[in-house]
Design goal:
Helices cover 0% and strands 54% of the residues. The chain has strands spanning 4-8, 14-17, 21-25, 43-51, 56-62, 66-73, 75-80, 85-89, 92-97, 102-108, 115-122, 132-137, 148-152, 160-161, 167-173, 177-182, 188-196, 199-201, 204-206, 211-215, 219-224, 228-236. It has a single domain, classed as Jelly Rolls (Sandwich), CATH 2.60.120. The chain has no helices and 22 strands. A 7-stranded mixed beta sheet has the order 1-20-17-22-15-13-14, with no helix packed on it. It has a 7-stranded antiparallel beta sheet with strand order 2-3-4-11-6-9-12, with no helix packed on it. The two termini are 31 Å apart. A hairpin with a 3-residue loop joins strand 2 and strand 3 (21-25). It is globular and about 45 Å long. By secondary structure, it is mostly beta strands.
Length: 243
């Protein structure tokens, strides 16, 4: 099997500075449009946001999208029309299946400092599902210096779940470590995002906020440096026709 890959260095992302919101777009979003960066498989959005104290996104709609939010610093206040009013903070993961339609708002819950979050949108594998919300503290499942699963397509698996044949894993390394990741589906690819630190992924040396996608492979080798935090996103490479 001959693998294929794409490299997105941190400084090549689309950057927007709205004052209260500073954001880096790995893929085309809002005012950033790059025809060569529309998606990676079913990953449609990978936004790296910094939201100023007390600021945020007012009530707005979504539909037929799987939305994953991972705070990296601070805390975010969430409200939606399903009756959820929660705080998600560093060390949590939140998912929303927008399905037939939801409205929600997101605000920095602290007035004094920015909240930094990753927001990831995946195309679902089912159309017009009943909207749902969930969040989880990763402290309950994390394993030091190893990748641990934080998301899957299965309700009974570790982590949160979504309507897509996708698995997310995360790791934080305080030692140098070499890990081999075996993909769960041969039709999937994997997108590696370096939150902090540095890692060798195959033949590529990745730095903070770099992204690297690889497909047509059964496994990847990752050699992480001390002080690295890494998100692995295994996703289908083909956009399925929604029914």
């Amino acid at each position: 099997m001959s693998d294929s890959s794409v490299l997105h260095k941190a400084n090549t992302r689309g950057s927007q500075d709205h004052g209260w919101l500073k954001v880096n777009h790995t893929f085309s979003f809002a005012n950033y449009h790059n025809p060569n960066r529309m998606h990676f498989g079913v990953i449609r959005v990978l936004n790296d946001d910094s939201i100023a104290g007390g600021k945020g996104f007012g009530t707005h709609p979504h539909d037929n999208m799987e939305i994953i939010t991972i705070p990296l610093e601070g805390a975010l206040a969430h409200k939606d029309n399903m009756g959820n009013g929660t705080i998600i903070k560093k060390g949590d993961v939140q998912v929303m299946s927008a399905g037939t339609g939801i409205t929600h708002s997101e605000f920095n819950s602290n007035d004094d400092h920015a909240v930094k979050v990753l927001q990831i949108w995946l195309f679902p594998n089912k159309k017009n599902v009943t909207p749902r919300y969930d969040q989880l503290s990763l402290e309950d499942i994390e394993v030091k210096n190893e990748f641990y699963q934080i998301l899957s397509p299965n309700k009974n698996d570790q982590g949160v779940w979504i309507h897509q044949n996708s698995w997310f894993s995360m790791a934080e390394f305080d030692i140098h470590k070499e890990v081999n990741y075996n993909l769960k589906s041969t039709s999937n690819g994997i997108y590696v995002f370096i939150i902090e630190g540095q890692a060798q992924v195959g033949k590529e040396l990745l730095e903070k906020r770099d992204g690297f996608g690889i497909w047509n492979t059964e496994n990847i080798n990752i050699s992480a440096s001390k002080g690295s935090k890494i998100l692995l996103m295994e996703v289908p490479m083909t956009l399925s026709k929604l029914v």
